[in-house]
Specification:
Helix content is 56%, strand content 17%. It is of the alpha+beta class. It has two domains: 93 residues, GMP Synthetase, Chain A, domain 3 (2-Layer Sandwich), CATH 3.30.300.20; 30 residues. A three-stranded mixed beta sheet has the order 1-2-3, sandwiched between helices. α1 packs across α3.
Length: 129
């Protein structure tokens, strides 16, 4: 895996920040869930394409609706990004659903359930049941 240069890392962060502001404040599509987060952006070194990893807090339908809404607003988002960031090329953005946050929350719940069950078992052993 190729290591990102400092310049590319700064561009990724700036595009992520601006993309988040555009999605939160400028897009009025009702399909886009209000709890949509831009987790990470990977801009290609030639600045022609970018992958934006999106996390949506909600059910499967709201996640798919949000992706569809973002896909239909790609042109507007790209124009708004070109106005706010001065780059040689404005990248073509591809939105990808990132479920790592949801996965982490589910794993945390499983761990809590296991710990709670162990605590209950320990209490039962101490009382002699």
């Amino acid at each position: 895996m190729k290591k990102n240069s400092i310049k590319n890392t700064r561009i990724n962060g700036e595009v992520r920040r601006e993309l988040s502001n555009i999605i939160r404040g400028e897009i009025k599509d009702p399909r886009i869930h209000p709890m949509t987060t831009v987790v990470e952006v990977e801009v290609a070194p030639d600045l022609k394409s970018a992958r934006a990893y999106i996390s949506v807090l909600g059910d499967e339908k709201s996640q798919q609706d949000t992706l569809a809404g973002l896909k239909s607003a790609e042109g507007y988002i790209r124009r708004a990004l070109a106005k706010s960031i001065n780059l040689r090329n404005t990248p073509e953005i591809r939105f990808i659903l990132d479920q790592s946050i949801e996965y982490g929350v589910n794993m945390s719940k499983f761990i809590d359930d296991v710990n709670r069950k162990e605590d209950e078992d320990d209490e039962n052993d101490q009382t002699g049941e």
